[in-house]
Write a structure and sequence with these properties.
Helices cover about 65% and strands about 5% of the residues. The chain has 3 domains: about 120 residues, Zinc Finger, Delta Prime, domain 3, CATH 1.20.272.10; about 110 residues, no CATH class; about 110 residues, no CATH class. By secondary structure, the chain is mostly helical. The strands form 2 sheets. A two-stranded antiparallel ribbon has the order 1-4.
Length: about 375
């Protein structure tokens, strides 16, 4: 059975959810940039904040519809994953195309259903935690260089025989091709078909692989093939927990947690924070080279604010991957990383004051 036929049940399920949804509330867009709307959408889904997620989606629906669908696809693989594979399949089905969505009642009808489903889903960030480990774990530096220079047959053999998930994942990504904007892995041209043939050989369930294959075709991101690999080890628990959520502060029309290092306002606020005598700023200046201090603050902020989840599903593997992300991928000693996280939590009120100044100054300018 080919990928299209395996995705068809999700298309039918999406149609049923659109029909069951009844009257769809009209979109209520915000007066914010598409970049801030993308950040707000993703972090609202992570936190289970459907009201804000719908407003962010409405903003993108109005101002940048292509970015809306690409971001929803990314969110499903990055923040939902194996915790709710049905939701990932529904979202992937929604990416079929504009004509398909028109037949289901139009883009906004479909988007509102998908956003609500993702927001209430159980969540796992294991695929993104794995990707960040592959890019940054110091212990993988030699493997990153060595595997990037291997032949396709050698990468296939390595993936099939290694007991290490990280080495297997690196082999798959180098076979896929890593010459992509924004990727930190050594650049290597790949062959997508060979990478997914290898995944098929490794043995994830056919429907899971079809979702990941179609998700990659639509997003061109690393997470769909990594999700297929994680499906081989799964081991998620039934119960869910909410991550530690910092106190929320509104910055204009959005919560402060939407202003991260990938938004203009958020990046400027972090630059201003670095100029203060805040504990996290002094820590960064003492521990990190000057040219990397801004990025370091952004990564610490992500771990304590931007990447937190409501209804997180844990498991032995996903817990290990999360621990690696939190303490081993910041480029400093794990004990120092724990200190940095605590300092950022303490300095969030100051950062929110700076965010208000930045946003207010832009609105007054």
């Amino acid at each position: 059975m080919d990928t299209t036929k395996r995705i068809d049940p999700f298309r039918n399920a999406l149609l049923a959810e659109v029909i069951d949804g009844g009257d769809v509330a009209p979109p209520q867009p915000l007066d914010i940039s598409p970049w801030l709307a993308m950040s707000l959408l993703q972090k609202s889904v992570r936190r289970g904040r459907c009201d804000l997620a719908l407003k962010a989606a409405a903003t993108l629906h109005r101002d940048a519809p292509d970015r809306l669908w690409r971001r929803l696809g990314g969110i499903s693989f990055e923040d939902i994953g194996l915790a709710d594979l049905q939701a990932v399949g529904l979202t992937t089905a929604a990416l079929t195309g504009k004509r398909f969505r028109r037949d289901l009642g139009g883009d906004w009808n479909v988007a509102s259903v998908v956003v609500q489903r993702l927001t209430r889903s159980r969540k796992s960030r294991a695929s993104d935690d794995l990707f960040m480990a592959l890019e940054t774990l110091p212990g993988l530096a030699v493997d990153r260089r060595t595997l990037s220079a291997e032949t396709n047959p050698r990468l296939r053999l390595t993936a099939l025989t290694t007991p290490s998930l990280h080495i297997r994942a690196l082999s798959v990504l180098f076979l896929l091709g890593t010459d992509r904007p924004g990727w930190k892995l050594p650049a290597r041209r790949g062959e997508v078909a060979l990478a997914f043939d290898l995944l098929d050989e490794l043995g994830p369930a056919p429907t899971t692989l079809a979702i990941c294959r179609e998700g990659y075709r639509k997003t061109q991101e690393a997470l769909p093939p990594l999700l297929a690999l994680l499906a081989l080890e799964n081991g998620l628990r039934d119960e869910t927990t909410d991550d530690r959520m910092p106190e929320e502060a509104m910055i204009g029309p959005v919560p402060g947690w939407a202003l991260d290092m990938f938004t203009r306002e958020g990046k400027f606020a972090l630059t201003r924070l670095l100029e203060t005598n805040a504990g996290i700023a002094e820590f960064a200046r003492s521990m990190v080279p000057k040219q990397k201090q801004g990025g370091f603050l952004g990564q610490v902020l992500f771990r304590v604010e931007g990447g937190v989840l409501a209804r997180r599903v844990g498991g032995d593997l996903s817990d290990r991957l999360r621990s690696q992300l939190m303490f081993e991928t910041l480029g400093i000693d794990p004990l120092a990383a724990a200190q940095a996280l605590d300092l950022m939590r303490q300095d969030l009120p100051l950062l929110n004051c700076i965010r208000r100044t930045v946003v207010g100054g832009q609105h007054n300018g």
